[in-house]
Amino acid sequence: MYQFLNDLVENNKIKVIKEFKDFDNQIIPVGSEWTFEKYDYFPYDGGYTFYFKEGTMRMAEISDADYYVFIHASEYFVLL
Questions:
Q1: What is the DSSP string of the chain?
Q2: Residues 29-74: pLDDT tens digits?
Q3: Distant-in-sequence, close-in-space partners of 16: CB < 8 Å, separation ≥ 6
Q4: Distance CA 19, CA 41 (A)
Q5: Total-model pTM
């Protein structure tokens, strides 16, 4: 995810290729497409809030499941 974050710029589209749940237990389904706007980082818990035109995704480094998505982003997302 960390390298993936460097590749994201406003209006980039990503497609989810493997379902997962974000920090809020929101299911992010396979095939969904998201148009990136920005993200905020909260150092206290390693928390990220990703803002997309289609909605918001929250992820946190303190969650083992979220951290796995971070370090294996290419299993979950492709840039369109």
A1: -HHHHHH--TT-EEEESS-EE-TT--EE-TT-EEEEEEEEEETTTTEEEEEETTEEEEEETTSHHHHHHHHTHHHHEEE-
A2: 999 999 999 999 998 888 999 999 999 999 998 999 998 998 898 8
A3: 28, 29, 30, 31, 32, 33, 34, 76, 77
A4: 23
A5: 0.87
